[in-house]
């Protein structure tokens, strides 16, 4: 019953999140799209003003190129083509979302059954292993697998909780400081925060680009807020939640993020760290076993 109750809470939380966050995110995206022409015109006017402030430099070519690009992008024909092409894209995206949601529900149902019968699976595994392997070896394998699972799950769940808190704090601070597009920017900051080291820098760039179009002063306030938020995460929140869950040195974390990103993109950047941590644990265990056999103590 505890497992079922936990999953019901998860599904309820996801339902509330989708019902509240998705409509507001769509509204923010539509507002961003609506404001693009105004931002573009202000940028052109700003470049024109540079010619008067700095007569020694010629900004005419840059200004003309930007104007021509804007006319092409915002022309009736181009907007018509975009509107025509966006319908199939929306259909494809909707179908992908529905398919993904169905797969997610199926995965939850399967995982409920697996968790419900976890003790049975463990018993079958142990019984089968004992038929071929000595009991001490089976116990050692079970201990190693349990530790690997603990390293992986502690990091993933801890990092997700850490990123959720950072996203919520970002949303609250942006509202207190009256910064625009708080929800959509906080979502970006929270999601990218799951990527170690590089995530905070990746996440702050879209928000800075959006806010600078409204007010450069607000962009500076936003960047200072993000800097303080990330310092809080790195010095207080992260260590409190994650502790030393991976046991990896910073250089290995950067290595894991880089290799994971090159292999599997953003998911690889996130999952690379716990995978490398598990591999490191197994290698260290093997080395200690070899040293113990040779009666070497370091």
Counting structural domains, the number is 3
User: Could you spell the SSE succession in H and E letters?
Assistant: HHHHHHHHH
Strand percentage, roughly?
under 5%
Instruction: Outline the low-pLDDT stretches.
Output: none
Report, as a whole number of angstroms, the end-to-end distance: 48 Å
How many helices? 9
Q: What integer is the average pLDDT?
A: 77
The largest β sheet comes out as:
none
Q: Mind telling me the C-alpha Rg?
A: 26 Å
Number of strands: 0
Would you tell me the structural class of the helices and strands? mainly alpha
Q: Would you give an account of this structure?
A:
This protein has 298 residues and is mainly α. It has three domains: 1-115, no CATH class; 148-245, no CATH class; 247-297, no CATH class. It is 87% helix and 0% strand. The protein contains nine helices and no strands. The chain has helices at residues 2-53, 60-73, 76-116, 118-130, 135-176, 182-192, 199-212, 216-242, 250-293. Helix 1 (2-53) crosses helix 2 and helix 5 (135-176) packs antiparallel against helix 6 (182-192). It is elongated. The model has no long low-confidence stretch (mean pLDDT 77).
